[in-house]
Backbone:
């Protein structure tokens, strides 16, 4: 009887054991899929050229990054240019679509949120571990028909959940809950069309949606340069 009971316990435990990967193990496999820690740490700058579409409207964008320090994004739409910059603990923006042609300083909350843009797209979870942000595995679920692991990361500006493909350990989606000027805002992104760049596997197409947005924005990278020369002067706020 004892042998039968032990056998039953073992059989029942097998499904649980098969899912018993830890958050660290999943993130380590994810980092290996990306190209490895050394490759990630070797990225000092990144420059993206992108085409974007939203509700049938086409836009172009250029983003320049000094990893972990500064980011500048210039989006061209309807003959206007929207600029958003974060540099260290400060940031500024110009948005003529909202009636402003002069640079405006960002609030501290906006700077915290924009700091995420100083990391190359697709590497967020890897950087979370490298920076020792608190993280945990919250479960296994379905995303777009795929089995994925859900990992929650707590950052200074809010809580992020990253969904990692249980088969190939690529990042397939993320969602965020951040607080800006006392208002909680949520957003999500889907990552696809992975390509190899300098030994790293990175997503080239991202679908972004969120509160206050008129629809889903699809952004496709047309050119990506890693470790090129980025002039720090482009992050300086223009004098008025």
Residues:
């Amino acid at each position: 009887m004892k042998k039968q009971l032990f056998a039953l316990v073992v059989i029942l435990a097998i499904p649980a054991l098969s899912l018993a990967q830890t958050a660290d193990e999943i993130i380590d496999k994810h980092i290996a899929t990306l190209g490895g820690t050394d490759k990630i740490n070797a990225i000092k700058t990144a420059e993206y050229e992108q085409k974007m579409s939203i509700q049938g409207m086409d836009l172009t964008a250029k983003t320049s990054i000094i990893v972990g320090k500064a980011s500048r994004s210039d989006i061209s739409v309807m003959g206007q240019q929207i600029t958003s910059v974060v540099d260290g603990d400060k940031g500024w923006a110009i948005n003529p679509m909202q009636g402003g042609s002069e640079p405006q300083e960002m609030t501290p909350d906006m700077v915290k949120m924009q700091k995420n843009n100083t990391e190359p797209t697709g590497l967020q979870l890897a950087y979370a571990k490298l920076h020792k942000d608190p993280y945990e595995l919250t479960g296994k679920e379905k995303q777009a028909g795929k089995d994925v692991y859900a990992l929650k990361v707590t950052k200074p500006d809010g809580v992020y959940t990253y969904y990692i493909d249980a088969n190939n350990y690529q990042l397939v989606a993320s969602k965020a809950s951040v607080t800006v000027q006392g208002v909680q805002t949520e957003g999500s992104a889907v990552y696809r069309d992975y390509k190899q760049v300098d030994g790293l596997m990175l997503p080239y197409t991202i679908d972004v949606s969120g509160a206050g947005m008129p629809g889903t924005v699809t952004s496709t990278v047309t050119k990506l340069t890693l470790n090129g020369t980025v002039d720090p002067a482009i992050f300086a706020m223009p004098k008025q």
Q: What stands out?
A: The longest strand covers residues 183-197. The CA atoms of residues 50 and 221 lie 4 Å apart. The chain has one domain: 21-235.
